[in-house]
Amino acid sequence: MKRLKNFLKLFLTLMLLLIISIFFAFISYHITSWIYDWLGEHPQGFWLQLWTVVGVFVLFACSAIITFLIGLKRQRNYWNTIVNALSRIAKGDFTVKLDLKTDEDQFGQLIHGINHMAVELGEMERMRQEFISNVSHEIQSPLTSINGFAKALKNIDLPEDKRQHYLAIIEMESNRLSKISDNLLKLTSLESQHHPFEPRHYRLDKQLRNVVLTLEPNWLVKNIDMDLQLENISVMADEDLMNQVWMNLLSNSIKFTPAAGTITISMTKQMDAITINIHDNGIGLTVEQQKHVFERFYKADQSRTADNGGSGLGLSIVKKIIDMHNGTITVESIPAEFTTFFVTLPLEINETRAND
């Protein structure tokens, strides 16, 4: 059986060579005739004509072989360049950019795909490093405070009032660390696309009123006027996740609204969506701050956020949850005048998430 396969391979190879030879001979004959017609004279005698055809055949075949070898070498160089680029990407070098001149064929699409992949992986690596840097910075700050005040407590001559003050700071910073950890786990779970997502119909206006009541101690102590302009509207959403959205947004409004200020929660219903506006007359945001307000660990005011125990993750979590519901969230603000968050949700959504 093996001998038969070898024989068939040899036979097919010889047949292919014969066909190629006949093809070259045919082309050579016509090229020779064209040259004779151009010169205006034809060689006399069979052998002279035969050798002329053979000479042209050899010349044409050699030219074809040389052209083929040059193309093969160029293609091999292309593949070596591609393999080398992929090897560099595999080792973490995302600065790779293939500058090979190709047509818009499959090979050209491959080159474009590799360049695009390198750019995207480079951006992901930059975000990863930035994320690690931000996490390290956020954790280091409370740890430094805890360590410093813990050492101060070792002083046996420390007055009792200062001791209690230091203990309160350690407790506050510990809670801050715990909040950072909880928010990181929450955001990681949401971005993993494995977080439970169970949309159902429920009364949105009732949920907003419950959130306002839950946060009542926070806004009462600042004598903030809560103005609710809500309609009886039901939405299709994950009630637990959306509760987190309203808690984060309203907590921010209360936090950054001055005493005796006003917070207004209103609704605007469209044909197939609803927009919830959370408006306050607090400190506001600049145009530059509005561009980054939904980024992880972004803080519009570093000192104020640290005093309030913020981690810079709350609005990132809000944005992720809204995206999961196929909704949008935007912000409008003028410093020292007002801030308004606009949350738009479809009244009906698919059972699957927007990013699945």
* String of helices and strands: HHHHEHHEEHEEHHHEE
Largest sheet composition: 5 strands, mixed
Strand order of the largest sheet: 2-4-5-7-6
Class by alpha and beta content: alpha+beta
Low-confidence stretches: 302-308, 351-356
Secondary structure: helix percent: 55-70%
- What is the approximate shape? elongated
The Cα radius of gyration reads 37 Å
C-alpha end-to-end distance? 53 Å
- Total strands: 7
Q: Tally the helices.
A: 10
Strand content: 5-15%
Mean of residue pLDDT?
78
Protein described:
This protein is an alpha+beta fold and about 350 residues long. The chain is about 60% helix and about 15% strand. It contains 10 helices and 7 strands. The strands form 2 sheets. The protein has a 5-stranded mixed sheet, with helices on one face. Strands 1-3 form a two-stranded antiparallel sheet. Helix 1 (about 1-40) crosses helix 2 and helix 4 (about 160-190) runs parallel beside helix 10 (about 315-325). The longest helix has about 45 residues, at about 105-150. The radius of gyration is 37 Å and the shape is elongated. The two termini are about 55 Å apart.
